[in-house]
Amino acid sequence: MSPLARLFALAGLVSLDTRIMVPVLPAISASLGVAPGEVGYAVTAYTLVYGSMQVVYGPLSDRLGRVRVIRATGLLFALGTGLSALASSTWELVGARLVTGMFAAATIPTTFAYIGDTVPYASRHAVIGRFGAVMSTAQALSAALAGAITHVVSWRVMFAAYAALAVLPVAALFGVRDATRPVTAAGARVGYAAILARPAARRVYLAAASEGFFIWGGTTYLGVLASGRFGFNDLEIGLLIACYGLGTVAGGVTFARLADAIGERRAASRGGLVLGTGWLALVPPLPWPVFALALAVVGLGFGWLHAILQTRATELMPEARAKAFTLFPLSVFFGGALGTAALGRLVDLGLLPLVAAVCAVGLASVGQFAGRRR
User: What is the pLDDT of residues 84-128, one digit of tens each?
Assistant: First the structure.
């Protein structure tokens, strides 16, 4: 198995974990006896620490090596996921998800830096598209598996099972050597202020934060929306939300072809419009098959728009690639944490259709912004 394949396997499990609470949030809420918005604080905690730790792992992997950092943090990520299974209150769950997010933060962005080190830019669209498809497939499976395990057993068993599963790809990484890429003296001296001084970097980070606010904030409550609108159980919610994951798989698979055919700018704009259309279809109380199709459309648009932003982020500052790239997921997850908290207040007021409408307008606007001439 190639080094990239092993890294993709662990990144897939981390991607699976990042959205693990979406389909089972209603079950956790009922089990702990609190409102869905309160359980949403665990999602906010995860996303905040996941994003903020990027500024640690970027420079660390530049100095110590990509694979070495991923191996160590992967083991601690599995431990944090296991702790989530033991939570007996909202705040214990928040603490466990903080620990999980702290160490999950290393894998995906450091893998992107590894791709940037080893894959020429001309070939990067295809590799990043495949990487996106792997993560999207994991998220699709996450929704279905999380819903099924929670429905048949409990959400605690779900967390425990994922923790055990995460150990396997970490063990496989002990046979992988780091790509030879010494950090230059100039690269080591590059500060975050110098990166942020570049207009192209600021545009990418602003688009990423805005995308995170609406896509992460909105999708966190899809399970609550499906439960209230259709009366679905945990298994049915998981299978329904898996349609979003299937859409992102399609976006990852078709992204390189789309970008090559119409260019990055038009692909970003089109991704935003598709995202907006999908979210708009979630506003009225239409039958569940339409809901499922709308989720797939949202996933497709996200797959296109997010991959464009990721590809741009890998080349913002090649001499300090990991350090520059870490600000990308930091932006996404900071925006996502704010979105989860802010939109959660609307959810608790019973304004779920308004949440969908806000996400529709917001994500369509992000796509148009990303599609403007750089």
Answer: 999 989 899 999 999 999 999 999 888 888 888 888 877 777 888
CATH superfamily of 3-177+184-371: MFS general substrate transporter like domains (1.20.1250.20)
CB 73 within 8 A of CB 198: no
DSSP conformational letter for 119: S
What is the DSSP code string of 225-258? HHHHHH---HHHHHHHHHHHHHHHHHHHHHHHHH
- The whole-number pLDDT of residue 186 equals 54
Q: Which two tokens stand for residue 289?
A: 């098959």
Q: Is the pTM of this model over 0.70?
A: yes
- Gap between the Cα atoms of 121 and 311, Å rounded: 9
Of 367, 146, 158, 151, the closest CA to residue 251 belongs to: 367
State the pLDDT at residue 145.
81
Cβ burial, residue 49 (10 Å; 0-12/13-18/19+): buried
Please tell me the predicted confidence (pLDDT) of residue 187.
53
Cα 254 to Cα 362: distance, rounded to the nearest angstrom: 24
User: Domain boundaries in the chain?
Assistant: 3-177+184-371
Residue 51, pLDDT score:
75
- Which amino acid, 129? G
On whether the CB atoms of residues 319 and 184 are closer than 8 A, the answer is yes
Contact 359, 215 (CB under 8 A): yes
Paired tokens of 177: 């050597």
Q: How far apart are CA 144 and CA 148, in angstroms?
A: 6
Tokens of 114: 């590894």
For the chain, give the longest Cα–Cα distance.
Answer: 59
DSSP string covering 10-67, please?
A: HHHHHHHHHTTTTTTHHHHHHHHTS-HHHHHHHHHHHHHHHHHTHHHHHHHHHHH-HH
337: helix, coil or strand?
A: helix
User: Residue 179: its pLDDT value, please?
Assistant: 67
Question: Cβ-count burial of 56 within 10 angstroms (0-12 exposed, 13-18 middle, 19+ buried)?
Answer: middle
Distance CA 235, CA 147 (A): 4
- Regions in the chain scoring below 50 on pLDDT: none
138, exposed or middle or buried, with CB in 10 Å at 0-12, 13-18, 19+? Answer: buried
- From the number of C-beta atoms within 10 Å of its C-beta (0-12, 13-18, 19+), residue 152 rates as exposed
